[in-house]
Amino acid sequence: MAVGPPEDDVDDSGLTVGPPKEYAAGIPGVVQSLRHAGRQMGVRRSLLTLLAVNQKKGFDCPGCAWPEGDERHAAEFCENGAKAIAEEATLRRVTRDFFARHPVGELAGRSDHWLGQQGRLTEPMYLEEGAGHYRPVSWDEAYGIIAGELAALDSPDEASFYTSGRTSNEAAFVYQLFVRALGTNNLPDCSNLCHESSGSALVETIGIGKGSVSLTDLHEADLVLVVGQNPGTNHPRMLSALERAKRAGARIVAVNPLPEAGLLRFRNPQRPSGVAGSGTALADEFAQIRLGGDLALFRALNRLLLEAEEAAPGTVLDRAFVEEHTHGFADFAADVRATDWDEVLEATGLEREQIERLHRMVLGSERIVVCWAMGLTQHKHSVPTIREVVNFLLLRGNIGRRGAGLCPVRGHSNVQGDRTMGIYEKPSPEFLDALEKEFGFAPPRHHGYDVVDTIRAMRDGRVKVFFAMGGNFVRATPDSRVTEEALRRTSLTVQVSTKLNRSHTVTGRRALILPTLGRTEADVRAGGPQFVTVEDSMSAVHASTGTLPPASPRLRSEVAIVCGLAERALPGPPTGPGLPWAEFAGDYDLIRDRIARVVPGFEDFNRRVRAPGGFVLPHGPRDARQFPTATGRAHFTVNPLEVLRVPEGRLILQTVRSHDQYNTTVYGLDDRYRGIRNGRRVVFVHPEDLVGLGFADADRVDLVGEYGDGVTRVAPGFRVVAYPTARGCCAAYFPETNVLVPLDSTADVSNTPTSKSVVVRLVRHPESGTPWAG
User: Fold this and answer.
1) Share of the chain above pLDDT 90, in %
2) Distance CA 519, CA 468 (A)
3) CATH of the domain at 461
4) Is 201 a member of any domain?
């Protein structure tokens, strides 16, 4: 089956384009939050729900993983957080009657936005082989179908178990326990698609794959570099932290191909100046970098720092830190000194004068934080880029110092916690040893499949059962045509979900939808009311307690779903591990007791997490400048300069979110900050590039990917928007442009898809015929 845009995406007759905004939040953000919440939940339910989000006795926002401070506002949420909560706590319902009215073939033609707006799933649904409609099934029947398929496999490695970052610590722990007791490490997760490059680089250089800063560090920094990140849309509560840093005297540098409203000016709706005044100007400097040029920029800054130290010995570098706590400085320094300025300027698209101005800002700052997101992690050379960022901070001792450090900003609210709990296809021997000691079975030791390898394995017939704990795998992954065809080759696909999405319409020969509780909902089990826990981007672990009545009495928590399946699918003694699944499902304290004995840093878990605000996990580099690497020191690395060169007449495309979406969830069809209304099939291109390519603003084009593997990849029917992006670059929304990201174009080391460096050409869209062909 060919992959084309769903029918609801074709008609963009209502699309309008206006000037981009020059500030984020303010009264418009408040109005949009309340309007969206009211439409989904009603006024009273909206107030009760929103006042509980991110509170110490409330529930964790299912949106981003930005941390909360100790002091919290009554309204501790942002516009996109309010939208995420409203979508989950909606009063709309998808019942068995809905599935009876809508065949799967029809649903496959609907847009992501339309599917998500239908409401909450209410009971397990089953698509039999050859059937056109899902039908309701009991939980027992659903477990039996899955258990039967797993038992029929020649090897446990013929099944793969995906995880979305919204899964709680408790659910993630029992999920990986079930999968490993089954006999495989096929545990792909959303980290493989976003911050895997960060984890790979940080483990190699500082010994732990997590950032080294706290919220207080950000507040106390002298200089904050926000690189490849758009916090105004993707992590809006971060703007409050940047505002606080700015008011304390920090300078902020935005490094990004697109100018983003959130880094221009922030109108904090919780301050009078944000309501009636002009707000706070955030970025002191905007370095409009060419896509993929960040490695070259940090190499240039590092060369300038070395030269400044040579000119004034003992005044620039932190020699004591370098000598006592690092390894590999000499090789790194020799390589960086040879950095070619012409290549730097070509790679970055920046003027040398601006790079030297940034260097002077660095020299004038004792405490520096570097924040980044997927703008750094989704290139072929992403891991070397982040290693070079580490080099930059090591030179002046900015790791393990108050007000300084590494700040990878995660997306999903518990994506970091899931990895801590063991959701990883390449588990460490130490983690597996701890599992074996605690549970008395021998977990598999061979590495499993990540996301890209899972798609390849399904395509090649090596994975026959695909199970997804949350998320929208079809729309989150690269190379949409290949991914969909791969899933259709499986014998069974299972989706644990709160709402309808496209992954329910692209199925194996058989398919199940298992509806689950959301974060907002009360979870009452045999042991009484339960809570779950999450870990934020800064390693703080805290409780999350839902309060709303469940959307349906037939929903089960993720913990209960996993434990119920494990009881049915795993053999008991004497042929298999005898694990207390029913007890785990009835009382999550019992899971936390086991976590405390398996995962370092979670000792006395149940007591500590009940303290208001929870607790912070230990982090050797941050806490004591102790680096758990092979040498016991932080590692300087050599990272050859990469220049992304493209043929004449081509552009480098980055996939981005609109302001009206979170990951693959599309809340609406507007991107207020970029001036887009009522449409998503747009491509942002610099006006001068348009002239050079022979196009004009508002032209209709097809985006054709060029990877060199002989495969034609087309995202058809986009309106060109003249926009001040970096020259030679363009941007368009995902998931609509994921079709252009080749499955085999991945970052070195991390295997993350290169969604921020896709080479494309613009082709005038045909005015007649079959515009979606090709």
Assistant:
1) 76
2) 18
3) 3.40.50.740
4) no
